[in-house]
Amino acid sequence: MDSIFFLEIVVSVLFMSMVAQTLSKHFKVPIIMFLLLEGILAGPEVLNIIDPSIFGDGLTAIVSLSVAVIVFDGGLHIDIKSIRAIQKTAFKLTTIGVLITFACTTLITYFILGVEFKLAALFGSLVAATGPTVITPLVRNIHVNHKVGKILEIEGVFNDAASVILAAFMFEWIVSQLDGFSAVFFILLRLIIGITIGVVSGNILKRFLSSGSLVTDQTARFFTLTLVVFSYVLSELLGNESGILAVAVFGIITGTSNIPHKNALKEFKADLVMMMLSIIFILLAAMLKFEYIIGIGVKGIIVVLLLIFLVRPLAVFGSTVNSHMRTNEKLFISFIGPRGVVPASIATYFALKLDSMNILGGQMLVGLVFLTVIITVIMTGTLARRVANLLGVIPMEILIIGGGEVGKILAERFEKRGENVVVVDNSEEMCQRLLKQGIRVVHGDAEDINVLKEAGIEKAKYVVATTDQDNTNLLVSQIAKSKFNLKEDQIVARVNNVENLHAFWDLSIRSMSPQMTTALVLDNMVGKPSMFSMCEVGEEGEILEARVTNPKVAGKAIKELNLPENSLLLMIRRGDKSYIANGNLVLEYDDLVTVIGEDDAAREVADILNR
Questions:
Q1: Using CA of residue 360, residue 362, residue 365, residue 368, what is the dihedral sign?
Q2: Which fold has domain 397-517?
């Protein structure tokens, strides 16, 4: 085949990638679904436009290079310093969770399909990991709870590496009969090689990017890409199947470091990753032979469904026993378990090796892995947003300007109720204090539009200016309105000097003065002792508003509702009228209810009203 023919294939794949991106944005589902469908349609089994077999061994090289860059990019978007509160949960999912998934999947496959135990174990190891190539764009697309999203991303990056090493061990067990000390040595050696090369590469890149003004964005991107490929190749040479772990560690060290040109690297890698993801997913999908899947039959589908609805929840709940995660968050993580490029590519590679050694089971392995990828990707891609809405893990994006005492307390409260919060502050000390509490921060001047963009103002639901400088609060509020088109009810500002209140009001900015508010509250407390209890709720509970959208609640009297004991409905807002809540008042659809409650009681009532 001449070079033009190869270029025709590349152009075809890139064109299909553009189509997939357009469809993904239009239908708001992960691009992986369309890439998978396009690959199957374009492959030899349907239209025969693309035949990946013509690449020969070159396909393995293409897949390896692409996976290395994709995993590095996943690590690059993880900042360990800003997610300390979830490190233990993520670590357990990538260790305990992987082992639970591996063990349960192996047993289910062995007993249901009746295949050889070693082959069942090989399949169990391949699908023990969730795919970062699917999870990362999915999480960013539906904007789930920051804590949940980062747990899923970290899990995807790290357990891909864990799964690859485990699968390599199982493959060696099949072909070379590893046992005893040699088996332990095999795994430990690859862990040491991958982690060491990843750490060394991360430190080399940090030194290079910090070396001076001679390093431009272009130089930084070129050097980083070269170092990623070098790290992967060197790790593979020293210990086969350790390369993914090396680039994962490399990416996380880079993402956690405060180094120049980081944003340039992220932008460049995002484009590169999309191109590589498109190429390998389409090519791998095109390799699929229907006879592999048909040969497995209904039993194969049963295995995959058990993997989704039994094994995955067992792994998640087993790994998060002592965590502070809510049940709905665990349920959402349990549902998000798609398998992606890595198991598909490695299964294909192992199948070719097994066939060359005259060891049966290669075709069954490929068919079962691809069946798992297809079902999990389609199910996750089509239902993830609905499940997220049902479980309430799509929060508001709230940008807080100022990390002082007011900003800190606000951030803690918003985080506690599950919102996505970012704090902007120009004090390095203040930022470090917030980081230690697991709150996301951006260090910089909030009056700088680029700093606000970095903090995510373009997708913020609310901007809350809490600094002790009225000029800053006023300017940030104006920027939010004029430059980023936030509405009046999306901006809230603190006014430190009572005399400046009218300046905010004249610009239609919702604002409050601590001095004025304190005086009003104290005024109401004098001679009205009951006001104390309402103020004290603010320490351990909260007061919030919830819209009645649950059809099972609309049309019922308040006394008929089974509400938590430590909660109380205060007021009902219906159109332009307000009603004091009493037991006989019948709630109507779209009523706005003011709820007061201790601990999480107010949130529980809100869930009942708008379920």
A1: negative
A2: Rossmann fold (3.40.50)
d(CA 312, CA 330): 11
Mean pLDDT by 10 residues, the chain (611 residues): 73 87 79 84 89 77 80 76 68 90 96 92 90 75 81 82 82 74 83 93 92 83 92 91 86 86 77 79 83 87 96 95 85 90 78 78 88 89 87 87 91 82 92 84 91 90 93 94 90 91 88 80 63 52 80 88 84 85 88 82 82 68
Longest dimension (CA), the chain: 92
Alpha helices in 541-579 (DSSP H): none
Q: Nearest-CA neighbor of 579 among 594, 567, 590?
A: 594
Tokens of residue 419, six digits = 């919102």
Question: Could you give the angle at which helices 362-391 and 327-335 cross, rounded to 10 degrees?
Answer: 150
Mutual angle of helices 312-319 and 87-113, in 10-degree steps: 150
pTM: 0.71
SS (H, E, C) 6-46: HHHHHHHHHHHHHHHHHHHHHHCCCHHHHHHHHHHHHCCCC
> For 461, which DSSP code?
S
d(CA 240, CA 361): 22
Among 1.20.1530.20, 3.30.420.40, 1.10.10.10, 3.30.565.10, what is the CATH number of 3-391?
A: 1.20.1530.20
| Cα 48 to Cα 539: distance, rounded to the nearest angstrom | 66
Contact by Cβ (8 Å): 371, 186: no
Helices and strands counted in the chain (H then E): 25, 10
Q: Per-domain residue ranges for the chain?
A: 3-391, 397-517, 540-610
